[in-house]
Amino acid sequence: MFRYSPLVFALLAGSVQAQWYETTGQAMIRSGDSAKARQQATEDAVKRAMLFAGVSVRSLQEVTDGLLTQERLQVQATGEVQQVQLVSETTRNGYYEVTIRADIEPQKSSCPTLAYKKKLLITPFRLKEAEQAVIGDLFDLGTVSGELFTDKLKEITHSSWPAPLNNPLDVRALTYAERKAIQQQYGARYILTARLDDVSLGNREGTNWSFWSDPDRERFYHLNVLVFDLAEERVVLEQKYQTSAVWTYRKTTKLDPKNHRFWQSDYGQAAERVLNAAAMDVEEAIRCEPLQAEIVDVDGPQVLLSIGKAHGVKVGDTFKLLHRREMPDRFGRAQSLLADTSITVKVTQLSSEAAWAETVDNAMLANIQPGDLANPTTPIVDEFEVEDPEDDSGTTASQP
After folding, report:
1. Domains in the chain, start-ordered, CATH in brackets?
2. pLDDT digit string, tens, across residues 319-356
3. Separation CA 19–CA 54 (nearest Å)
4. DSSP 8-state class, residue 5
5. What residues pair up with 226 in beta bridges, in sequence order?
6. What is the pTM of this model?
């Protein structure tokens, strides 16, 4: 299985408040337009640095425009990105590669749940038109694309915890009871579905005079990604991605997407670029989304929460409890109604996906019952925590 590891170095300068991040971005050169590819590759590199630093990428265009217009390829920016410098740039196999160093000082986050990871269920990617996969024998392209996307998201994410859901779903068609059942069974509020809308062959590209070969043709890779909030029946992100590349193989040639050879082809590299972009967009979209734990059990002054170490919870974290009631709306559909309480609990014991928490004043929880919810109240620390150099996630941290 092909695996991509982005180049990200965190270079600590003096203190955790001043950090340099070195990243490499790529962009395909289309129709000989190297300038546009250079800009896209620079944006890719800056976005990777900002995501790794745990800051927003809303000002990305402003930053990269400055970088590209400076004679020394250096920019001063306000707020989170203090400085961006170009390290190197090159073209390789039809792609423009840019390596930058960015001085990023994360500002105090306005996201109350940034310290925690939201569990994100990822359903199998599917082909909209299976017959389009006949040429090349690409019937596994959806499945393999989903696996590669999940790997990429795991490599860059600080906000989500990707977990597979083996059954494809039409999330918009789920009933309230079905959505609630998924949340309780898998302990997840968010779900991602994706569909390859077009993997067909287009028009002939150029002239091929070899009698044993078929004409080169353009091949499309159109991906539709949807992130859905099961609790509020709300679309968090819906994004379409479209790319194409020249398909140079004969009609009878089989190119298994599980094989390295596929991902080293022009078409495979174009598809990988789309998956890179989708992973970064999902990370940005889910970063400030709410996180709630469900109360699984009540034992005297203690509650068992459906959230644990895997979500980033630590002993001592505090949560405010909420009552939950189900009321029918005007269409007869059940909806959750939440009511704040004055009860705060502190985590005392942890497992991977569960935590015991007790009231801060050791009071009994007479009105709290399983099915009620808990919101985190622990403030987010201002300092960015650098990844452990021994971590195997593909990210490297070093100190000069």
Report:
1. 8-108 (3.30.1660.40), 118-286 (3.40.50.10610), 293-376 (2.40.10.410)
2. 999 988 776 666 666 666 778 888 899 999 999 999 99
3. 12
4. -
5. 193, 238
6. 0.73
